[in-house]
Amino acid sequence: MRSYASFKGHPIHPALIPFPFAFLLGALLFDLLGLASDRRGLMLTGRHLSELGLLAGMVTAIPGVLDYLKTVPPASSGRARALRHGTANATALFLFAVGWLFRDATSPSALTIISELLGGAILVYGGWLGGTLVTRNLISVDHRYARAGKWQEVTLSGAAGASVVAARTEDLNEDQMKLLHIDGRRIVLARTKEGFAAFDDGCTHRGGSLAGGVCVGGVVQCLWHGSQFDTATGEVRCGPAKRNIHVYEVREQNGQVLVTLPRDG
Ligand code: FES
């Protein structure tokens, strides 16, 4: 699904990742080369790369945290993976910071090298998890299918039992969806041949985003493992999901589409 922290549709976090990766692993490389050859210039480069890497890592973390909070589906296997990804990268940054703090005046100390070796290994692990978040969980992948239209997402609020104006009728064509954030709840509004439908944006298998899936002919498909649900009734049409998704009451009124929130909140 589309990244929250994006610029003109392009996700920012994946675009920044090469910088801390290159700088921090480069710091380790130059420190090792400098120690092996006893060349101060290489060790000084290692120090500067370490400083650049720490700065780049902190900047890169900002869109990453935003995507974690706003894009990755809550209560999903992707969320747990994203937490491990963030924790691993934060730990790697911490270790490189320790290595930088304990450098000698002109060369890296033994603690610096140990911290950088450990931090580098954890950084690679964090990067591997980040890659899985993109390739398997499709975080920041703005895929399109026939007639899908542009990605639509809006944040609204409404009390329990209230009807919330979710869209204008013309906002969606047939087989198009819109993701609604309503007071912490993620709801998908979809337009089908039979009219509008609204349902939870959480596949009951492992929590994949249905707004980030495919909606065709009154059926929405989760792209994580292929489960399909009826958009009108929420019934499972095809596994591996076994439980139906929750659907909401929807009605059109004066060119607006209203979604009614459940009374139990
Ligand atoms: S999360 Fe597995 S099919 Fe949706």
Can you give a write-up of this model?
The structure is a single chain. This protein is an alpha+beta fold. It has 2 domains: about 5-135; about 155-260, Rieske Iron-sulfur Protein (3-layer Sandwich), CATH 2.102.10. The chain contains 5 helices and 13 strands. The protein has a 7-stranded mixed sheet with strand order 3-5-6-7-12-13-4, with no helix packed on it. The chain has a 4-stranded antiparallel sheet with strand order 8-9-10-11, with no helix packed on it. Helix 2 (about 20-35) runs antiparallel to helix 3, helix 2 packs antiparallel against helix 5 (about 110-135) and helix 3 (about 40-70) runs antiparallel to helix 4 (about 75-100). The radius of gyration is 23 Å and the shape is elongated. FE2/S2 (inorganic) cluster binds near residues 224, 226 and 241.
What's a quick, concise take on this entry?
With 265 residues, this protein is α+β, with helices and mostly antiparallel strands.
Bound compounds, each kind once, are: FE2/S2 (inorganic) cluster
Structural class: alpha+beta
Q: Assembly state here?
A: single chain
- Percentage beta strand: 15-25%
Strand order of the largest sheet: 3-5-6-7-12-13-4
Main beta sheet, described? Answer: 7 strands, mixed
State the end-to-end distance: 26 Å
Number of strands: 13
Label the overall shape: elongated
Helix content percent band = 40-55%
Number of helical segments?
5
The sequence of SSEs as H and E is EEHHHHHEEEEEEEEEEE
**Radius of gyration, CA atoms, in whole angstroms:** 23 Å
* Total count of domains: 2
Low-confidence parts lasting 5 or more residues at pLDDT below 50? none
Mean pLDDT: 93
